[in-house]
Design a protein that fits this description.
Layout: H1 6-26, H2 32-53, H3 62-88, H4 91-98, H5 102-111, H6 119-136
Helix pairs in contact: 2-3, 3-4, 4-6
Length: about 140
C-alpha cells in the first residue's frame, strides 16, 4: 500500500484541528451566521487559488459538478451548525462529538460503495464511540 496519502492527511489533520478551535474564538466576537459569511469568503479564497492551479479549467462532468456542489452545501451547513454549537458549548466536547461524523461516512461506504469494514476496523470504530461517550459525559 502506497503512503502517498499520509502528507495530505497530516495537512488535513492540522487544518481541521485548527478549524475546530478557531470558531470558538470567532463566535466570542460575532454571531455564528456572520462568522459563516467570513468563513465562506475564506473558502472562496482557497477556491480561487485552486482555480489558478488548474489554469482556470476545472474538469466538468454533470454528476461530478452536482456532487461537488452538494458537498459544499452539506459541508457549509455542517459548519454553520458547528458555529452555533461552539458558541454555547465547550469546544472540546463539541469537537469530540462532531468528530464522530466519519461513522456516517463509513456506514455509507459499506452500504453504497460496498467497502468492507474489517473486524479490526470495527473494533476501532467501537473504541472511538466509547471514547466520545466518556469524554462528552
Amino acid at each position: 500500500m502506497s503512503a502517498n496519502w499520509v502528507l495530505p492527511a497530516l495537512v488535513t489533520l492540522v487544518c481541521w484541528g485548527l478549524w475546530g478551535f478557531i470558531p470558538k474564538l470567532t463566535t466570542q466576537y460575532i454571531n455564528p451566521m456572520s462568522a459563516m459569511i467570513y468563513e465562506t469568503i475564506g473558502a472562496a479564497i482557497v477556491g480561487l487559488v485552486v482555480l489558478t492551479l488548474v489554469d482556470f479549467r476545472p474538469e466538468v462532468h454533470v454528476k461530478g459538478v452536482c456532487l461537488g456542489i452538494t458537498t459544499g452545501i452539506i459541508g457549509l451547513t455542517g459548519a454553520l451548525g458547528f458555529l452555533f454549537a461552539v458558541k454555547s458549548g465547550k469546544v472540546a466536547v463539541v469537537a469530540m462529538f462532531t468528530s464522530m461524523s466519519p461513522i456516517i461516512t463509513v456506514a455509507l461506504g459499506c452500504l453504497v460503495l460496498k467497502e468492507p469494514v474489517t473486524f479490526k476496523e470495527g473494533l476501532g470504530i467501537l473504541s472511538a464511540f466509547a471514547a466520545i461517550f466518556f469524554f462528552a459525559s
